[in-house]
Amino acid sequence: MDIETFLIKRFPGCGRTQEFRDELANACNSFVTSGLADANFTKELCSGLEQKFWSRVSEALLAARLCKVGLHPVPSLGGGPDFLLIEKGLKIWIEVICPEPHGVPSDWLTSAPSGVMKVVDFPHENLILRWTSAIKEKAKKLIGSVDGTTKGYIEKGIVKSGDAYVIAVNGCQLRNGPFPNLFGISQFPFAAEAVFAIGPYQIKINRDTLEQTDAGHQHRPFISKPKGSPVPAYTFLDARFKPISAIWAVDVAGTLVGKINPMAVIHNPNAFNPIAIGLLPAHDEYVATPIGTEEFELNRIEGCLQK
Question: Is residue 104 within 8 Å of 96, Cβ to Cβ?
């Protein structure tokens, strides 16, 4: 089945639905003709399997966003990351993942009927677990498993010691109905919470005087799970992950509702090979600046899509 036929069956309709469908078709066809797609791209896109569809669409849409800002990804050959940028002599490998909504309440994921007000809890812990899992999976692809049983791109010789590596996480399957959502309980992106141990904002109050004594974000190095051990949420504070340059956090699934596809870049302050601020398309970038020898201050900088 060709891409257009499959998309018509999946997203039937006219008007804005057709615009949405055309955007997906154009991005996917361009991805194929550019040589960026591997041999299984069209087959998996049109397989009818939800995860394969969104995984493949994510690759095509992110490649399109890169091209739109003047970047030119090239194919990643030999079983490497999804694609490669070469900017000012620096090789920047980009690995894309679109986490599935396992464990996310269905009430959060489904839209209310037109004209009906719907109130649901914000399942921030369920959502941050999907982000930490996605980042962990793609970090393992780079550096291998802790026990050494699985080799990563570095040990295989695909990603060299002087190369940058970016994990692109498309959170479109985790959104609240049709509405994009990149931000967690802290009001920082989920991706920042997952790599800098950022928890909810809290206020400390003196029990006797009832006066506020302090305020700030909780330090949350682990996320609790319903079952099993807590999950680490401090990737960029762990020396083992210095080969990761940044997380490119996006919510991209076409523009059926509105025209905003939020994007943010979270830079690793300890990266062996950092990428330049303003390189990747983003509305916001988050940069951790050292304060003394033991602390970082996380600052938001306007990305190139804000300018």
Answer: no
DSSP string computed for the chain: --HHHHHHHHS--STHHHHHHHHHHHHHHHHHHTT-S-TTHHHHHTSS-HHHHHHHHHHHHHHHHHHHTT---EE--SS--SEEEEETTEEEEEEEE----TT--HHHHSPPPTT--------HHHHHHHHHHHHHHHHHHHH--TTSSS--TTTTTSS-TT-EEEEEEE-GGGSBTTB---B-TTSSBHHHHHHHTEEEEEEEE-TTT--EEEEEEEE--EE--SSSSPEE--GGGSGGGTT--EEEEE--S-SSSSS---EEEEE-TT-SSPPPTTSS--SEEEEEEEETTTEEEEEEEE-GGG-
Q: At 257, is the pLDDT very low, low, confident or very high (cuts 50, 70, 90)? A: very low
CA-CA-CA-CA dihedral for 31, 102, 222, 286, to nearest 10: 30
Residues 77-131 have pLDDT tens digits of 778 999 999 999 999 999 999 999 999 999 999 865 555 556 678 999 999 999 9
Evaluate whether 247 touches 191 at the Cβ level (below 8 Å). yes
Whether the CB-CB separation of 159 and 79 falls below 8 Å is answered with no
Q: Where are the domains of the chain?
A: 1-68, 89-306
- What average pLDDT does the structure give for the chain? 92
Residue 106 amino acid letter: S
Which residue has tokens 């999946």?
Answer: 10
CB 36 within 8 A of CB 83: yes
Radius of gyration, CA atoms only, the chain:
20
Tokens 């896109």, residue?
45
Q: How many CA atoms lie within 13 A of 212 on its CB side?
A: 5
**Distance from C-alpha of 99 to C-alpha of 96, rounded to nearest angstrom:** 10
User: How far, in Å, are 73, 132, 219, 233 from residue 222 at the CA level?
Assistant: 35, 10, 9, 5
